[in-house]
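Inverse folding, one chain.
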């Protein structure tokens, strides 16, 4: 998330913040968040749902009115992590009750098989008829190449990587 935050700031010129723990959220950050001074906010489910410092933010009318879209990246992690590893992923559906009904939810995954997709839709609280856009996995910039390496100097042959 820090990388995305840096990219938004430096490349796109979009004000953003990426707090990754309660210690990273300062009073000045809360004031800027409440005032709508950031256009992009990158947070983990744990920060969103469990941060004591952010709890009051969700009840502020200005914050709720400024919030337009919630993007959940790597949505397939919900199905795999919500039970044992990172339980906050299983509570993402609580976000719906924390925001205005006009806030759009966008979920993104590069690989999401149909059974995982069905489970994810239910656990995040999307309606069963939610629009799904599958762009496929065929990418021009990704390829698989196999080469027969000479028996001598196999380590040097790895330089192509």
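Residues assigned per position:
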């Amino acid at each position: 998330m820090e990388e995305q935050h840096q990219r938004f700031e430096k490349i796109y010129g979009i004000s953003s913040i990426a707090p990754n723990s309660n210690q990273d959220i300062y009073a000045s950050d809360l004031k800027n968040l409440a005032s709508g001074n950031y256009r992009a906010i990158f947070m983990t489910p744990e920060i969103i749902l469990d941060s004591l410092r952010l709890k009051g933010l969700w009840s502020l009318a200005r914050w709720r009115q400024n919030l337009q879209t919630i993007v959940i990246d790597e949505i397939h992690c919900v199905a795999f992590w919500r039970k044992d590893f990172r339980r906050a992923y299983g509570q993402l559906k609580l976000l719906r009750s924390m925001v205005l009904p006009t806030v759009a939810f966008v979920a993104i995954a590069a690989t999401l098989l149909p059974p995982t997709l069905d489970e994810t839709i239910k656990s995040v609280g999307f309606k069963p008829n939610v629009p799904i856009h599958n762009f496929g996995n065929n990418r021009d910039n990704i390829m698989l190449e196999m080469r027969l390496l000479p028996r001598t100097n196999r380590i040097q042959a790895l330089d192509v990587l």
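The mean pLDDT is 83. The first helix runs from residue 2 to 10.
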